[in-house]
Amino acid sequence: MCGLAGVLLARGAVSARELEETTARMLAPIVHRGPDDGGTWCDANAGIGLGLRRLAVIDLSDAGHQPMRSASGRYTIVFNGEIYNYRDLRRELEARGARWRGHSDSEVILAAFEAWGVDAAVRRLGGMFAIAAWDAELRRLSLVRDHLGVKPMYVYAKPGAVAFASELKALRALPEFDASIDREAVTAYLRYLYVPAPRSIFRHVVKLLPGHLVHVADPAMPLPSPEAYWSAEDAARVGLANAFVGSESEAVDQLDALLAGAVAGQLESDVPLGALLSGGVDSSLVVALMRKASARPPRTFSIGFDRPEYDEAPFAAGVAKHLGTEHTQLIVTDRDALDVVPRLPAMFDEPFADSSQIPTFLVCELARRAVTVALSGDGGDEVFGGYHRYVRGQRLVGLIGRVPRAARRLLAGAVRSLPPSALDSIASGVGTMVPPLRVRRAGDKIDGVGALLDAGDATARYRSMVSAWQHPESITPDQLESNGEFERLLGADVGAFVERMMLADQAVYLPDDLLTKTDRASMAVSLEVRVPLLDPRVVEFAWRLPLDMKIRDGRGKWILRRLLDRYVSAPLVDRPKMGFEVPIAAWLRGSLRGWGEELLADSRLRENGFDPKPVRRAWSDLRRGRDGRAHALWAVIMYQAWVDHWAAAT
Asked: pLDDT digit string (tens) for 363-382?
C-alpha cells in the first residue's frame, strides 16, 4: 500500500528543479502511507512529475521501488494498492515475451500496459488500486481507480495544471493551491456525513469515481470527462438480467468457491498478515476462509469498549476461539477513544463525520503492532443486504406510501412534538403488533421518523433514512441542495426499490464513507487493509441472486449466514447487528461538551457560513436527552474542527 502524488503542467512552465521540488513537497505530508521508501520521477520537458511513498508488501527489494518505468521506457507509473491476479497475468505476459527484474505487481501492471494498452489492461486487473501512468509516446497522463473505490484518487484542475494524489493534504502542498470551498459539497456533507463523489470539499478538486479512468493530454484544457470501465450499476443490470437459476445449496456452493478464491488470493504478502475481527457475520466468514486457506492459524484483532452496550469483543473472542486464531483483544475506555478526536481533521483531510472512524482507527492501530496487512469484512452489508434499513425499507417505504400525504404530514408533526421517552413507549407497543415498525431506541430516531412520514416519494423516504440533517439547506442558507448520484440511482429503472437502495449504497455510501474511513484510519498507522467481500466477481455474482437469498424472514445476508454455518456455529454470530458505534451523544453531553460549545458558538457558525439557529436548537435538544440529534451535531462540529485545523496548517 502506498501514497501517490504528482502533477502535469504546461510544457516548460517550470524548471526541472522546480518540478522536482513540487513533486517532493506533495509527498511530504503523506509519508504515513508509505514509510518504507519514497521516490520521484520528473520530465520537465513534458511537464510531468510523479511521486510515491511506499509501504512495501510484495517484493521488498529495490526491484519494487516506484516510480517504475516499463521495459521499453514508454510508461512510467506510480501505483497504490494490490493486484491480486498479478501472478496469472505475469504468466500470460511472460508467454508473450515479458521479462522481469523482480516479482512485484507494479512490474506486471507496466507489462500489461505495454502489451494491451492502458484501457484494455485496466479491465483485466483484479484488486484494489489507484494508478497514475505517464505515456511518453502519446504524452498523456492516465489516472485510474479500482472497481469499487477501495483506493482513493483526488484530482485538482486549474488552467495550466492538473495534479493528483491519494490524499487532499498532498494537493494542499501545491504552490498557490486554490482552497475555495464548494458550498454545495458542504450541504451534501451535512446530510450524509461525508462529501459524495465526484465532489470534494474544495471547488477545484474532484474524486475520480470508482471504476473510472481519465486521460489528460493537455493541462491547459478543462479536465476531460472520466470514462467508466466498470460500474456497480452495470453489474446490477447484467446480474438481474441473468438471474441465478440453481438451487439454494448450489448458490451457497458457488459463493463458497468465489469467496474462498478471493480470500486465498488476498493472502499474498511478503510481510506479516492478519484480520480485523468484530465477531459479526462478515468478518467471521473472512477469518473462517483464511483459516481454511492457510496451514497456520491467522492472527486476528478486535477492540472492545468498557461500555457493555457498545462492546463486541466477547463475540469476536468466541469466534476466534472456535476457529483457533491467534487473537489479540484490547478493551478501550472513553478516554482512549476521546484522545483520537483531535487527530481526526488531519487524518481525514476533508470533513468526515462517521463516528465509527474512531474505533476503526483504534483497531487498525492495534493490528499494526503485529502485522502490516489485515483483511476485513467491509462490504458484506451493501452487497448482501445486511442493513436493517433494507429489511424495514422494503416494507415500510411502501406502507407509508399508501397513507395520504396530508395525513402523513399531520402525523409527522405530531411525532416530532413527542419527547423521546413517549416515542419509545409507542414504538414498543406498535412493534409488537407490526414487526416492520419495530425500531430499536426509537426515541433516538424521532426526527428520522418524522422525516420518513413527511417524505414525498420512495427516493425521498430512503434518503431520509440515511440523513443526519433532514434539511441541511436550512443550515447553509446561501446554498440550495441538488441531487447527485445517490438520488439518481434510487430513481433508476433497476430491480425492486430495495435493490436500488443497495445499489446506491454500493456506488456512493460504500466508497465515500466506509472505504474512505477504512483507508484513512488504516493508512494513518501504515496498515494495509484488504476487502475480499468486494472482489468484483463476488459483487457481480451477488447481483445474480434472487432477493430472497439476501433478505429473508426479516433478516439480511441470508446466503452469507448459510455459508458461515459451514464454518462457525450459528449461536456464536446469531445476534442483533450492533455496528461499530460509539456513544457520541453521551460524549457531547459530557466530556466533549465544552469543546462542542466552543465550536458551536454563534459567531463561529456564522463565520463558516452556517445559520446558528437550527444548530443551537439541535444542541439544546441533545442536552435535553434527544440523542437522535447527536450525529447531525457531530457533522457540524467536525466541520468546524476541520476548518480550525486546516486554517492553522496554512
From this structure: 999 999 999 999 999 999 99
